[in-house]
Amino acid sequence: ASSPTRASAILALHRVAERGQAGVVELLVAAGGADDAATKGAIQQVLPHLASKGDRRVLTALCQDARNDSSRVRLGAVIGLSALSERGDRSATAALCQAAQDSDSAVRKASVWALAAVAPRGDKAVIRQIATALEDPIPEVRVA
Fold first, then answer.
1. φ and ψ at residue 116, rounded to 5 degrees
2. Dihedral of alpha carbons 29, 79, 35, 56, sign
């Protein structure tokens, strides 16, 4: 199937599947291995509505996507990590700290917000990372 067809099918799942429904999250995680940004974007759009918070398979896939070549995919991954990670999740926190240094300002801004929601309270490395955002050359990142 073409990329737009896959993306449409994935978005349709959001309308018919229930959160945590057997097989649906597994299908989405498997489809997330596709190389095209449209498919990954659609998956990232529906995962927060269908996956359970803390689902390790989903979080692992999102952590990988946070290093994707496409800034759109990286941004979707950061948003997904923010929505689906439990506070204190170390792998999500590490991925978000890395994303907070991204070349794309939208990814950096979203990462700062996500770190505030996900990182363990009092984590000095995270506090330093967020403090670095105060010096960002892009005003939108500084006010995140």
1. -60, -30
2. negative
Residue whose entry in the numeric block shows the structure tokens 């309270």: 121
Structure-block tokens of residue 134: 């105060």
pTM of the model: 0.91
**The token pair that represents 16 in the structure block:** 């018919």
DSSP 8-state assignment for residue 30 = H
Q: Which H or E run contains 16?
A: helix 3-16
- Distance CA(144)–CA(101), nearest Å, equals 14
pLDDT (tens, 9 = 90+) of the chain, 144 residues, equals: 677 888 899 999 989 999 988 799 999 998 888 778 888 989 999 999 999 999 999 999 999 999 999 999 999 999 999 999 999 999 999 999 999 999 999 999 999 999 999 999 999 999 999 999 999 999 999 876
Instruction: For 53-92, give the secondary structure using H, E and C.
Output: CCCHHHHHHHHHHCCCCCHHHHHHHHHHHHHHCCCCCHHH
